[in-house]
Fold this sequence. Notes:
The chain is an alpha/beta fold. The chain has 4 domains: 48-130, Signal recognition particle alu RNA binding heterodimer, srp9/1 (2-Layer Sandwich), CATH 3.30.720.210; 177-354, P-loop containing nucleotide triphosphate hydrolases (Rossmann fold, 3-Layer(aba) Sandwich), CATH 3.40.50; 373-429, Orthogonal Bundle (Helicase, Ruva Protein, domain 3), CATH 1.10.8; 441-635, CATH 1.20.58.760. Helix content is 49%, strand content 11%. It starts with 9 loop residues before the first helix and ends in a 12-residue tail after the last helix. Residues 1-17, 161-174 and 299-303 have low confidence and may be disordered. Bound molecules: adenosine-5'-diphosphate, magnesium ion and zinc ion (ZN).
Amino acid sequence: MSxxxxxxxxxxxxxxxxxISRRIMFFFMLILLCVGLSGLLVPQHSKEEVPLSDxxxxxxxxxxxxxxxxxxxxNLEITLKNNDxxxxxxxxxxxGTLYEQGLINYCADLTGEExxxxxxxxxxxxxxxxxxFWGMIFDVAILVVPIVILFIFFSNxxxxxxxxxxxxxxxxxxxxxxxxxxxxxxxFEDVAGNEAAKQDLTEIVDFLKNPDRYEKLGAKxxxxxxxxxxxxxxxxxxxxxxxxxxxxxxxxxxxxxxAEMFVGVGASRVRDLFxxxxxxxxSIIFIDEIDAVAHKRDARGGxxxxxxxxxxxxxxxxxxxxxxxxxxxxxxTNRVDMLDKALLRPGRFDRHINVTLPERKDxxxxxxxHFKNKPxxxxxxxxxxxxxxxxxxxxxxxxxxNEAAITAARESHKKITNADLTEAFERIAIGxxxxxxxxxxxxxxxxxxxxAGHAIVGHVLPDSDPVHKVTIIPRGQTGGVTWFLPPEDRSxxxxxxxxxxxxxxxxxxxxxxxIFGKDAITTGASSDLKHVAELSKxxxxxxxxxxxxxxxxxxxxxxxxxTITTGKPYSEKTAELIDEEVKAxxxxxxxxxxxxxxANKTILDxxxxxxxxxxxxxxxxxxxxxxxxxxxxxxxxx
Length: 638
Ligand code: ADP
Ligand code: MG
Ligand code: ZN
């Protein structure tokens, strides 16, 4: 309780308010307790009432079905022979005992074994104390507790809520955490790569620390900073680093938390969050995964009304900042395109920091960060992993590091070896090796030709990435794997490169067909075919790479007239054209793969044989095996 004070200051008032909420919590718990006790104390309701005469008749019958009769005052509880719990009830009338009311005590005069045998046929009679102490307590409690609760609840509401608002009940309190005490401090040095983003954030920290310097020059301090980027690129990590570096209060909340409570609470949480931040200015508010509340209000399905209120409150609060408030709002999202445009307007989240997937040298830095505190052997080649992980996020890399440590522990290594690391990488990239899965000889042969087909088509076609590794050891869902590695990271791919990707993906199935005949279609190519289908569709609908639809794209998400009639933003006819174009790409890919493999049949045999023999072929084994391949004219594109 707050100390007596004739003129309570806001801090004291806050104290009383949180006391109320604590008291309310206490009574809710009491109710829960009562409900729990009732399960133990109150007799089950669903018991059948039977007349006393029936009970007596069955109890006197040696073939009767009653096991036990429990007598509590006038009440009888009857347990049947096939049961452990009483399932019937009855009542005695008058004060007489059961015997006076007709029950015969057949076993009374027997002793020893005879008595036991007799007892088995007739019910046991058990007497219980008539007054059930806990039952009485419960009866009282069930009457009194709600009255007490209601009384306290309302008297407090009367006293306090009229002057305070809904937050006083404690539900609306943002669960915003003041950052730093409970978790390890993150510094910018823990965030590898992403120099540009770190630079921008350093500047923000500086704004907060030395506002004068900027204001003197007439610069406006940014209000909203939006971190945007793919999942796992370190947005949350960077925000935590800002908290660690800035040395100002840092309130963080995740968009998904807004959604978890009662209607109307999201908005009041936002209000509370901003109030706290202003009181503690200069300070930072961080709303992680803001897309959870701030998705486009007009997007398909629409934002729920609840989210809309929360979003509106965020907008209202941000607009309400004056320049001197000294609060910077940071937010992070995986999907800028999904955000409501209103959030991105000037004065709101007008500063965007793009957090990108790491490039090769950044991947190496990230790996170094995550291996910093792990013991590693000298042979561990982080650079090789950095090279192989184009397109991976920081989270993926941290995952690989962790998996490598787990692998090393499983193998009882004192330090992490390069083999552990490679295993970890492949496990994460494709799934664990399935050593237990035994392939029969034919399956193994089919797999060998399948993978050799991928490898040869990829090797022969001029715009494909080089082959890195081929294996017929099953991993995850696949029977075998052929890896291609880009020599460096590239952001763009041209149409020839993509067509070579399609052809080499078809190479597996085509090789099977050439060797085992047209009818020997196996299920081993389903993921290849899925990949082909997805990529060729993307080339047509998103990249404008169709022969007849060159430079035309067909985005699905736009709404418009055709969306209503066909479910797609284009006409039936266009849909057919798209299907045709996709099929043309797939057919071309299969033809090119077939041409390559027929022209290089002897090498296909050689590679498949080597795979059957060694199971895994590394980059260094491949040049010899692939020597002498030729590119047939039918497979040439340019
Ligand atoms: P996001 O919020 O963008 O989805 P996180 O910040 O949650 O990603 O990143 C997940 C984890 O990945 C981090 O905790 C960290 O271990 C690792 N990570 C991501 N990016 C980096 C990076 N640039 N440097 C070091 N570790 C990183
Ligand atoms: Mg995150
Ligand atoms: Zn395949």
